[in-house]
């Protein structure tokens, strides 16, 4: 079931200059949310931006009353969302989309998160710790972005941290660290979320090594609920249809089903 | 005051209230059924149906612009057969008018969809889309020439006794000419406006943003333009007008009624707030009570 709710903002924490961690009270969405799903967020009326903005669910509190969102300010919508004050009402629609497949007992899974793309992977780790065997890689551009990963769940996974410029953690891309792990042992599955170029690179690595891989995509969306057909993702011939819809068929997709050349 | 009478008559179809939801912004209805009982609406207009499935345009297909939404979906739809099998049963089970939006590459495509559904008990009316700006085969050529619009509507009129609504393009010098032509050809009502042609360019890359290069603009940004077109056309035709274009509140909807619309249709607002159409309907009823309007029909076109 999808809910349309006014959720109270409980915490708004500064993570970096342009990233915030929001904790929202919404028991209905928290109770049903699965890792990889997202919510549509709006804090404005007719005087703000227009559409709601899609944001991944980064976690759910143990009592299943609150959800956590990690948001980077990139434009006026995310700026308005991050400017909301504690106690303010935030309009949420969710949980939306299809998440990652549940791990099977003993399944070895590598997660690769680029910057805030770590958010849905953090929820995955939170929900499924103990179900499978997780090894995590998280990458950011530079040291000042590393505080994104300064989080109890991410720390508990013993994640390998990288920065593109080597100012903190391992120097190099997420994909470099992922390749090192893959050289040691092939997992049953890779799951990834992050910038487009990173996902494309992870998909190529998985294809080359013939490892199952799920990616969570970030596309333009309007409704988020399958009504407008706006969130088309070009698919490979194997999928059977030229386009899938990120908001209902995704945002998590089997990476080999995506036509990366066209996307 | 008693509950106001909000019902309106469009051709041989009585809508229990004047709030419809616009084609392409409400899926096939069930997408919104988690949020409220969509059967409370006056009617649901489906996404455009074409005889065969259409894949739609390459992404990006939508981009927000100030107070507006540019879209170039490209009439992606499941095709007539899947529509009848998979989508229509849900719609038919609702206590609301089901209006099928029909599009096609040529007269035969429209004919095929209307003929096939002409006796289907789950369909109450056809909205003939002669105004999609986003595909060459979207019927826009019918929508910009009074002669071809008239011929198409005349042909379809012979195929069905159900209510026919012609959906007009705002991308013409004078929509009244087309409105008069389709009225004379037997259209029971007119719906307007479809989206205004527009585009977005990314200053960083210098490239068009939409995969289709151009798109159609909807949302609050077009409201004054839509109001004016309806105001003007309602002076020229007798058939009821279903007004739309940027309606996001009950006050917006009431303004369209004053401009000359017998019913209103909520589009982009559904994408922003899935409960928008319900809130607008509730608000229109409250407005009528507050203003002691016993019958919404009393204020149609009263801005003239
Ligand atoms: C399923 C999903 C999950 C997401 N999860 C998160 C999350 O957990 N945290 C987070 O911070 N962001 C997330 N995003 C991205 C977020 O939705 C966009 O950053 C936001 O919509 C931008 O809105 P804005 O008004 O701030 O920016 P705008 O003013 O709309 O745009 C600013 C810039 O960002 C670009 N842009 C806008 N939207 C997108 C988009 N969807 N994809 C790529 N580029 C875009 C624009 O072209 C422009 O250059 C997610 C997106 C999706 C689809
Ligand atoms: C995403 C999207 C898809 C649309 N698809 C159709 C369509 O298939 N057929 C049609 O006649 N109009 C279509 N329209 C136009 C709307 O039905 C409506 O006429 C227009 O958006 C103006 O109303 P609004 O400003 O309230 O959205 C579409 C509009 C949008 C935003
Ligand atoms: S965003 Fe509207 S269908 Fe996916």
Characterization of this structure:
The complex is a heterodimer of chains A (263) and B (304). Chain A is α/β, with parallel strands linked by helices and 263 residues long. Chain A is 21% helix and 33% strand. Chain A has six helices and 16 strands. Chain A has helices at residues 27-32, 76-82, 118-128, 152-156, 174-184, 196-209; strands at residues 3-16, 19-25, 38-42, 53-56, 59-60, 66-72, 89-96, 108-114, 133-140, 160-163, 170-171, 189-193, 212-216, 232-234, 243-245, 252-254. In chain A, the strands form three sheets. Chain A has a seven-stranded antiparallel sheet with strand order 4-3-7-1-2-6-5. Chain A has a seven-stranded mixed sheet with strand order 11-10-9-8-12-13-16, with helices on both faces. A two-stranded antiparallel sheet of chain A has the order 14-15. In chain A, helix 4 links the parallel strand 9 and strand 10 (160-163). Chain B has 304 residues and is α/β, with parallel strands linked by helices. In chain B, 30% of the residues lie in helices and 20% in strands. In chain B, the strands form four sheets. Chain B has an eight-stranded parallel barrel, surrounded by six helices. In chain B, strands 5-6-14-11 form a four-stranded antiparallel sheet, with no helix packed on it. A two-stranded antiparallel ribbon of chain B has the order 1-2. In chain B, strand 15 (241-243), helix 7 and strand 16 form a beta-alpha-beta unit. In chain B, helix 4 packs parallel to helix 5 (175-184) and helix 6 (223-233) runs parallel beside helix 7 (250-259). The longest helix of chain B is centred in the C-terminal third of the chain and has 15 residues, at 276-290. Chain B is globular. The chains are: A alpha/beta (263), B alpha/beta (304). Chain A binds chain B through residues 1-4, 42, 46, 49-52, 91, 93, 219-223, 225-234, 241-243, 262-263, and chain B through 24-27, 31-32, 34-35, 47, 55-64, 67-69, 71, 73, 76, 219-220, 248-249, 268, 270-275. The complex binds flavin-adenine dinucleotide, flavin mononucleotide and FE2/S2 (inorganic) cluster (FES). The site of FE2/S2 (inorganic) cluster has 12 residues of chain A, from loops.
């Amino acid at each position: 079931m999808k809910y349309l709710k006014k959720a109270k903002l409980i915490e708004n924490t500064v993570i970096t200059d342009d990233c915030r961690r929001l904790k929202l009270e919404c028991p209905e969405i928290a109770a049903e949310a699965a890792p990889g799903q997202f919510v549509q967020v709006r804090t404005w009326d007719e005087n703000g931006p227009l559409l709601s903005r899609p944001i991944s669910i980064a976690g759910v509190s143990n009592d299943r009353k609150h959800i956590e969102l990690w948001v980077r300010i990139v434009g006026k919508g995310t700026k308005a969302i991050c400017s909301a004050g504690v106690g303010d009402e935030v309009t949420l629609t969710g949980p939306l989309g299809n998440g990652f497949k549940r791990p099977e007992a003993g399944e070895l899974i590598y997660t690769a998160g680029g910057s805030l793309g770590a958010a849905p992977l953090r929820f995955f780790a939170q929900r499924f710790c103990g179900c499978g065997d997780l090894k995590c890689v998280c990458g950011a551009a530079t040291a000042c972005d590393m505080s994104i990963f300064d989080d109890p769940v991410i720390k508990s996974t013993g994640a390998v941290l990288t920065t593109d410029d080597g100012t903190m953690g391992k120097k190099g891309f997420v994909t470099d660290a992922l390749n090192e792990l893959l050289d040691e042992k092939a997992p049953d599955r890779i799951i990834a979320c992050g910038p487009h170029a990173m996902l494309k690179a992870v998909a190529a690595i998985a294809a080359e090594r013939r490892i199952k891989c799920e990616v969570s995509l970030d596309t333009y969306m309007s409704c988020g609920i399958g009504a407008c057909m706006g969130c088309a993702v070009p698919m490979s011939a194997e999928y059977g249809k030229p386009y899938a819809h990120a908001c209902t068929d995704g945002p998590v997709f089997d990476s080999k089903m995506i036509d990366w050349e066209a996307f | 005051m008693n509950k106001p009478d909000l019902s309106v008559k469009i051709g041989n179809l009585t809508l229990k209230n004047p709030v419809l939801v616009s084609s392409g912004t409400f899926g096939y209805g069930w997408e919104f059924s988690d949020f409220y009982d969509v059967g409370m609406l006056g009617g649901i207009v489906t996404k455009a149906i074409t005889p065969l499935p259409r894949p739609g345009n390459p992404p990006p297909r939508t981009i927000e612009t100030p107070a507006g939404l540019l879209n170039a979906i490209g009439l992606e739809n499941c095709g007539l057969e899947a529509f009848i099998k998979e989508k229509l049963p849900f719609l038919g089970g609702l206590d609301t008018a089901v209006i099928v939006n029909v599009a096609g590459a040529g007269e035969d495509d429209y004919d095929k969809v209307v003929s096939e559904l002409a006796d289907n008990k789950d369909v109450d009316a056809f909205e003939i889309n002669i105004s999609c700006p986003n595909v060459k085969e979207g019927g826009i050529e019918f929508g910009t020439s009074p002669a071809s619009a008239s011929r198409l509507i005349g042909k379809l009129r012979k195929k069905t006794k159900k209510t026919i609504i012609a959906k007009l393009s705002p991308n013409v010098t004078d929509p009244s000419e087309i409105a008069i032509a389709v009225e004379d050809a037997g259209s029971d009502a007119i719906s307007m406006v479809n989206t205004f042609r527009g585009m977005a360019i990314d200053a960083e890359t210098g490239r068009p943003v939409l995969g289709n290069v151009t798109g159609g603009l909807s949302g609050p940004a077009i409201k004054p333009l839509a109001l004016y077109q309806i105001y003007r056309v309602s002076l020229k035709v007798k058939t009821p007008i279903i007004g739309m274009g940027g309606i996001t509140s009950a006050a917006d909807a009431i303004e369209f009624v004053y401009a000359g619309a017998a019913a209103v249709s909520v589009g982009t607002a559904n994408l922003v707030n899935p409960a928008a159409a319900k809130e607008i309907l509730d608000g229109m009823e409250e407005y009528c009570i507050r203003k002691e309007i016993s019958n919404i029909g009393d204020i149609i076109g009263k801005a003239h």
